[in-house]
Design goal:
Blueprint: H1 2-18, H2 20-44, H3 49-56, E1 64-68, E2 73-78, E3 81-89, E4 93-96
Antiparallel strand pairs: 1-2, 2-3, 3-4
Helix pairs in contact: 2-3
Length: 98
């Protein structure tokens, strides 16, 4: 039984090593996706705030999802990472800010 457990641990570690870049990138994906999609939902599609919050909701919760309607800027924080998206115009839509 112990050998099977050690084998599973070794396989898990090997998989984590193989996927280390994807695992390192994952925390930023949640906030980037949420900021961009919420911005598009609100300022490109013109839908209401409650609908857009539900639309971007994921299984992993965001720490913060803040909208500045005057500047059409969205800030999303989750898993220790923060991203911003801003509306660029009617033809460009929203984009993530550096």
């Amino acid at each position: 039984m112990r050998r099977v457990l050690w084998l599973l641990v070794a396989l898990l570690l090997a998989w984590a090593w193989h996927e280390r870049q994807a695992l390192a990138d994952f925390p930023g994906i949640l906030s980037a996706y949420s900021a961009k999609e919420y911005c598009s939902c609100r300022f490109v599609m013109g839908l209401d705030e409650h609908y857009c919050r539900v639309y971007v909701q994921q299984y992993l919760p965001l720490t913060r999802l803040q909208e500045d309607s005057a500047t059409r800027l969205v800030i999303a924080e989750g898993l220790g990472r923060s991203n911003q998206a801003a509306w660029q115009g009617p033809r460009e839509g929203c984009r993530l800010l550096p």
